[in-house]
Amino acid sequence: MANTFVPGAIWPDNNGVHINAHGGGVLLHRGVYYWFGEHKTEGEAGNFAHVGVHVYSSNDLYNWTDEGIALSVVQDDPAHDIAAGCIIERPKVIYNAKTNKFVMWFHLELKSTGGYGSTSCSGIAISDTPAGPYQYVRSVQPNAGKWPMNVLDCHKEAVCPEVQETEFCGGGLPAHPDEINLLGKNFSAGQMARDMTLFVDDDGKAYHIYSSESNSTAHIAELTDDYQGHTGKYMRAFVARWMEAPAIFKRQGKYYWIASGCTGWAPNTARYSVANSIWGPWMEVGNPCVGEGADLTFGGQSTYVLPVAGKQDAFIFMADIWNPENAIDGRYVWLPIAFEEINTAPGIKIAWWDKWDLSFFDK
Ligand code: DGJ
Question: Which residue from 248, 260, 270, 279 has the fewest beta carbons nearer than 10 Å?
Answer without folding.
Answer: 279
